[in-house]
Amino acid sequence: MDRLSLRNQLQVYRTPYEEESPFIADFLELTQDPLAYKRERLAGHFTASAWIVNKKRTHTLLTLHRKLGRWLQLGGHADGNENLIEVAMKEAQEESGLRSLRLVDSTIFDLDKHIILERPHVPEHFHFDVRYLLEADIQEPLQISEESISLAWIAFDSVVDMIGYNPSILRMLEKTSKSEILL
Q1: Which residues form the Nudix hydrolase domain (predicted)?
Q2: Strands 71-72 and 74-77, how do they pair?
């Protein structure tokens, strides 16, 4: 998976979700920029995330993000790596300690473009987040990284209570329950 593979996947990516559809053109445009995979691109850059589920498809692994103070999927910056599957897998492993992680499908699971507010030494910018579906053993011990306050396997029917309203997480949750890949 590299820049060309990502572009090809984005060209065929379709979603029934109205809020996600407009992102596709923005992501395709970004693939043309050689700095798109580096956080130094101040207007915005690629990130990759892992929507991690257990084998029985009853729980998802979320992190209470230290900087943002919100429950989110695991993931992070590409930092020059054009293989966003590798980025998602690496970030998921580093942030959870899980060794049982398995990529369910190499196609894009979800896209989200969201604003990151200005912080000291970092101007406001966009994250163009490409998400992949991963599976892990729910019994494997978790290891919290410096980026997290907490990690937890959350039952699908408790996600809304845990996170509140976050349309991108709710969209991934809905995709998980509808996906034929999971059967």
Answers
A1: 43-176
A2: unpaired
Q: Does domain 3-178 have CATH number 3.90.1150.10?
A: no
The predicted model scores a pTM of 0.93
User: How do residues 121-139 score in pLDDT, each as one tens digit?
Assistant: 889 999 999 999 999 999 9
Extract the tokens encoding 158: 């408790």
- CA gyration radius, the chain: 15
Where do we find the tokens 């590798």? 86
Q: What's the CA gap between 46 and 79, in Å, rounded? A: 9
Looking at per-residue pLDDT, the higher value among 90 and 177 belongs to: 90
The 3-state secondary structure of 65-108 reads ECCCCCEECEEEECCCCCCHHHHHHHHHHHHHCCCCCEECCCCC
